[in-house]
Specification:
about 350 residues, alpha+beta, 2 domains, about 30% helix, binds coenzyme A
């Protein structure tokens, strides 16, 4: 899209929480970047439904706040927009373990005619002031590299991922193993609760090195269910098909995986794998591959595979002849984290997986 630049300075704008009309307008504007494969109207409708979800309306975590920056005197001349969502998080430092709030920042956007004049930067600084008042840290997932956000204190964190490809996989047919069953959205709550308890226990056992802080987002049902709802709306709008499987678990319920169907990027995106053995991961990944095949998707992707997840993926490659690729994600959704107040620090982001994505 070509657009004529409209000169503007920070004196010309107001940063504020969006009214419903401003919110809708900003979705219509940012749909140019994020609606596809949905139409703008379907994108707006999806965002409207998500804005009413338990995650977005939570009084406990603060819910999702939609911000806009508009020209003074014209509330509907949207210059930039962004949203921030409060989430339950864990922090472990020299003082031990504490729970607190952290923010996910999403949909950073400047209308094309106002770009390259410092508007997004100014808006992000105002947003930081608002978030710093009641949180431990904030994260965002950059599609524009790490330099711009780094300049505002959001430091890049690892973006390794593993892709399991359906094609060229040594002829192995994508079938769900018998010892694994698919999970529906309605079944997820108990797994999320178990997961929160286990992660809290694991974080509580950490003994950080001097000066180091470990942080994690809690994989709460509220957070995950927002992802499942988003998936449900997405596949219904694009494929006219109802969502059935949001994940899979081993028969004994001791290991599980959550995912969503990214029809735009042609992949089944894993939110989180909880397992104690590479063999369990191997079974869960086979279930994911079977689900990807049922939707005609090209691959299954999981972020920051480590420990048993890495070993399980390697089993798939070595024992089952599946094409598996480990790579750094350079161009999209690079996780970036900033401690409150922009404090310097050696931060380890535990369980930096897709479940925490905005
Ligand atoms: C990214 C965006 C919000 C920047 O808005 P802006 O008001 O022009 O930003 P500022 O004027 O404060 O800063 C401009 C800087 O942003 C960075 N930037 C913008 N687009 C970029 C891109 N595609 N890749 C890398 N850096 C980019 C650059 O550092 C740029 O500085 P430069 O012009 O000297 O290179 C705007 O271009 C936009 O809305 N893009 C489409 C949506 C999008 O990609 N949002 C970000 C999602 S993570």
């Amino acid at each position: 899209m070509t657009s004529v630049t409209k000169p503007i300075t920070t004196d010309d704008v107001v940063f504020t929480k969006a009214t419903p009309a401003q919110r809708e307008l900003s979705w219509r504007i940012n749909g140019a970047s994020w609606a596809k494969p949905l139409t703008i109207d379907a994108h707006v409708q999806r965002e409207e439904t998500l804005a009413a979800s338990a995650q977005a309306t939570s009084t406990e975590t603060g819910g999702r706040t939609y911000w806009v920056m508009h020209r003074k005197g014209d509330p509907l001349d949207i210059v930039s927009a962004v949203d921030s969502v409060g989430k339950a998080a864990l922090v472990v430092d020299g003082n031990g373990l504490r729970t607190g709030r952290a923010y996910g920042v999403g949909s950073v956007y400047t209308a094309p005619q106002y770009r390259k004049q410092g508007m997004a930067g100014f808006m992000l600084q105002r947003l930081q002031e608002a978030m710093d008042a009641d949180s431990e840290f904030s994260v965002l997932y950059s599609d524009i590299g790490t330099k711009f956000y780094g300049g505002f204190g959001w430091a890049a964190h690892p973006s390794l991922q593993v892709s399991v490809y359906l094609e060229g996989s040594g002829g192995a047919a994508p079938e769900k193993p018998e010892d694994v069953r698919f999970l529906s959205r309605g079944e997820m709550k108990e797994y999320c609760e178990k997961d929160v308890a286990e992660l809290t226990e694991r974080m509580g056992e950490l003994v950080p090195e001097e000066g180091r802080t470990h942080v994690a987002f809690l994989p709460t049902f509220e957070q995950l269910d927002w992802q499942f709802l988003r998936d449900e709306l997405h596949v219904r709008a694009v494929k006219g098909r109802e969502l059935e499987n949001c994940g899979a678990a081993t028969a004994d319920g001791s290991a599980w995986v959550y995912w969503h169907h990214d029809l735009g990027k042609n992949m089944l995106m894993v939110h989180r794998v909880v397992a104690r053995s590479p063999e369990a991961v191997r079974s869960l990944l086979w279930a994911a591959v079977a689900e990807a095949a049922a939707w005609g998707l090209e691959r299954v992707v999981a972020w920051n595979p480590e420990g048993v997840v890495e070993d399980g993926a390697r089993l798939l490659a070595e024992e089952d002849g599946v094409r598996v690729r480990f790579e750094f994600r350079e161009d999209s959704r690079r996780p970036c984290l900033r401690l409150k107040g922009g404090a310097d620090g050696d931060v380890v982001w535990e369980d930096n997986y897709f479940y925490a994505w905005c």
